[in-house]
Write a structure and sequence with these properties.
The chain has 574 residues and is α/β, with parallel strands linked by helices. It has 3 domains: 211 residues, 3-Layer(aba) Sandwich (Rossmann fold); 182 residues, ANL, N-terminal domain (Rossmann fold); 110 residues, ANL, C-terminal domain (GMP Synthetase, Chain A, domain 3, 2-Layer Sandwich). It is 36% helix and 23% strand. Helix 2 crosses helix 6 and helix 4 crosses helix 5. The longest helix is centred in the N-terminal third of the chain and has 18 residues.
């Protein structure tokens, strides 16, 4: 089998080295196509074409240069919006260094990140302004706040200047009319630092990942060889994270895909019906939630037997390459807007059962693998041949190797290529630790690569449990098996005590299941689960059996990309 069959032939994108070129490409190729749709109120929306978006971004670049808001670290704080994206494009296109900040962070963490990055200017949405104003006294380097999406009488005693984005846009347009291209940066250095993105903190302290335009374009060029996005997409993940920003929004810009922005998770279903997207980018927890809701609706509708027959028919026809999934499951897909047929999934391990269910009803899942330090994509399942159990085909812009493989071929995945970061901001020692002597990036993930360059992940090096008998156990493998066999487990974490003498688990049960079975206390829940745990253990190798388990009364703490923060659980169990 020729691996090249998975790749779309090289196009103009292969020569792109800056994100500005992507915006310019979209402006020339899709000038009148809607680029972004977003809700302004619960019922009203606004939109902007690719041509208008580029004009706004150019005006912003000119105004920032004119006002001296350049050659500095500029923070972006706010919900996903076309204004946020425009500011990001302006800053990284030869103006300054962008520092996206997670709007969900507690104020003290937000202040720490702003101070650490020595931010001088913050572009902030009106909704996040109150939180920012509270921490400004701590952030002595910040001299300017620019309010996006709104204008009012805000004052900031601890800030020299408060500006408004509409005013900057007007200034920039006037400058461009007077000076033309002279009002813009002379050039964009593809290898210079252009963005600092903080890691999500699933294993402890956040680090500032330094990326260049070339790093970001490594992801965009690689994805463009394996995927092509349809006409309309739906944005639900935080825009400050590299996965949503680069793998989704920037790639949509290249493909001319309209991005419809979800304004709040509580309006998710309503907005799906409104925008009727064909694709989205999500994390596994979102897909698990979708599948649980779909299964529950099927069961409560009294049509389980009818659904099972349809599933059998669909699988039978698929063997002879007849695809009628979307007709068979039209009613099931209706709450997703009726047109959603493609989801790119990354950010954490995806249950194969979840992927198989969604694929069976007509929503194709393209699992991927990445890390913020790789801007962030390293592999993704291609349109031309996705592979079950794999996290995807290695991007053409990346190389990979497996360090110290075991008897099954699994070892640490190490990467090299355009996507790999410049380093960690103001942390040369941390940077040195994650690179080998010969320049390969240590991902910390365990897995293997097949001869067709498909990547398979088995666990995380930091989470690896090394038992006294020398056996290595990936807790993620046991967690997936446990949740598959005992479906009323909503979340679980497998761990070992410091002695590593035995494997333990802590589980969080579906609250509806607990209520339906009268499991009011952890003791009652544990007694109820004990037979199921014994059955589970009977099918596991001796060294993978769970010696004991505890019941959690609340969901586990997670990062804003919905990944369980294992280090907090580890601290509790010590």
């Amino acid at each position: 089998m020729n691996p090249e069959k998975f790749l779309i032939k090289p196009e103009t994108v292969n020569s792109f080295t800056t994100v500005y070129q992507i915006m310019d490409h979209a402006r020339r190729r899709y000038p009148h196509k809607i680029a972004y749709r977003q809700m302004e109120t619960r019922t009203d929306e606004s939109s902007v074409t690719f041509g208008q978006f580029a004009e706004n971004t150019e005006a912003l670049r000119a105004a920032m240069l004119h006002r001296g808001i350049s050659r500095q670290n500029i923070a972006l704080l706010g919900e996903t919006s076309q204004e946020w994206i425009s500011v990001y494009m302006a800053v990284v296109s030869g103006v300054a260094v962008c520092v996206p900040i997670d709007k969900e962070l507690p104020p003290e963490t937000m202040a720490t990140q702003l101070k650490f990055a020595e931010v001088k200017t913050v572009f902030c949405s009106k909704g996040c302004l109150r939180k920012l104003l509270k921490i400004l006294p701590e952030c002595e380097t910040i001299t300017t706040v620019v309010v996006m999406r709104g204008k009012g009488d805000e004052t900031a005693e601890d800030c020299e200047t408060v500006l408004y984005l509409p005013d900057l846009l007007r200034e920039g347009r006037a400058l461009l009319e007077e000076q033309g291209a002279k009002a813009l940066p002379a050039s964009v250095d593809p290898d210079a630092l252009c963005v600092i993105i903080y890691t999500s903190g699933t294993t402890g302290a956040n680090k500032g990942v330094m990326l260049s335009n070339r790093n970001i374009m490594g992801t965009l060029r690689g994805c463009a060889r394996l995927l092509h996005y349809p006409d309309v997409s739906f944005s639900v993940l935080p825009v400050n994270h590299s996965y949503e920003l680069h793998a989704h929004i920037m790639s949509c810009m290249y493909c001319g895909t309209t991005v419809c922005i979800n304004n709040d998770l509580k309006y998710l279903v309503k907005n799906l019906e409104r925008f009727q997207p064909e694709m989205s980018c999500m994390v596994p927890m979102m897909l698990d939630l979708l599948v649980r809701k779909m299964k529950k609706q099927i069961a409560e509708s009294g049509k389980q037997a009818q659904f099972d027959r349809a599933m059998l028919l669909s699988k039978t026809l698929s063997k002879v390459h007849i695809d009628i999934r979307r007709r068979l499951f039209k009613e099931v897909l209706a709450p997703l807007g009726g047109k959603l047929g493609m989801i790119i999934c990354g950010g954490a391990a995806l249950s194969q059962d979840t992927a198989d269910f969604l694929t069976a009803v007509g929503v194709d899942i393209y699992n991927g693998y990445g890390i913020t330090e790789c801007a962030p994509v390293a592999a993704v399942n291609p349109l031309a041949g996705p592979r079950r159990f794999s996290v995807g085909h290695l991007l053409p812009t990346m190389e990979a190797r497996i360090a110290d493989p075991d008897e099954d071929g699994n070892g640490e995945i190490q990467l090299k290529g355009d996507n790999v970061m410049l380093g960690y901001y103001k942390a040369p020692q941390d940077t040195a630790k994650v690179f080998t002597d010969d320049g390969w990036f240590r991902t910390g993930d365990i897995g293997h690569i097949d001869k067709y360059k498909f990547l398979y992940i088995s666990g995380r090096l930091k989470n690896l449990i090394i038992l006294p008998n020398g056996k290595n156990v990936s807790p993620e493998e046991i967690e997936e098996a446990l949740m598959k066999q005992i479906p009323y487990i909503k979340e679980c974490v497998v761990y070992a005590q410091e002695s590593n003498a035995e494997i333990n688990a802590i589980v969080y049960l579906d609250p509806e299941y607990r209520a339906a079975h009268g499991l009011e206390t952890p003791e009652q829940a544990k007694a109820h689960m004990l037979p199921d745990f014994e059955t589970f253990n009977s099918g596991m190798p001796g060294y993978k059996k769970i010696a004991d388990f505890d019941i959690a009364d609340t969901e586990f703490e997670k990062s804003t990309t919905h990944k369980i923060q294992r280090f907090k659980i580890a601290a509790i169990k010590k």
